[in-house]
Input
Amino acid sequence: MGKEIREDLPRELLNKLSNPGVVLVYGPESSGKSTFVMYLVSRTISQRDKVLLYDSSNAVEVFRRLSPKLGEEFVKRVFRIRVRDWYEQKKWVRRLGLIPKEFKMVVFDEFTSNYLSQLFKMGDNIKRYMRLHRELIFQTAYLRYISQNFGKTIFLIARERSTGDPLGGLSLKKIASITVRLDKTGGDLFRLEVESEGGEISKIIFRLDP
Output
């Protein structure tokens, strides 16, 4: 895609994000990650497919605000599952291979919030921290396997500080097929950096107006 500045969301980006794979969207809090992902899903889903939304953040509120603009037909095809804690997330990740074929798009919002809440409870227990982090990496790797073998596009929404490992191990960014870093620069203007699996980075500036 090259390092270009765009004023809208380019078609090649939409095509790239609609292909089967794991798309990690990360950035600061309140940077518009959930809004961006639901907008992308509405632009890339076909009329016969359904969306599965695992919501452990505020995705449902974001979705309600966007609903009038995204259209009633799209709203009817989004099925929400509330994820309350880390153990529920593990359960739903491991069951993802059993979901019906018509669910081509899967969104985890927020994939790492329950992980962070567990970290806060651990204090300085490094062994427990590493065990928890390995479990998160396993979940990401498993989701990539599901996406490749079942033809699904899986969006993982995460806070910026929870996508890497400060102890030097694997990060979610290394496992995801595509990594998107999102910053809100003011108003409805966004700065987007997209890194593909091969390490190529595109920098895009766009306005989000579904």
Summary: The first strand starts at residue 21 and ends at 27.
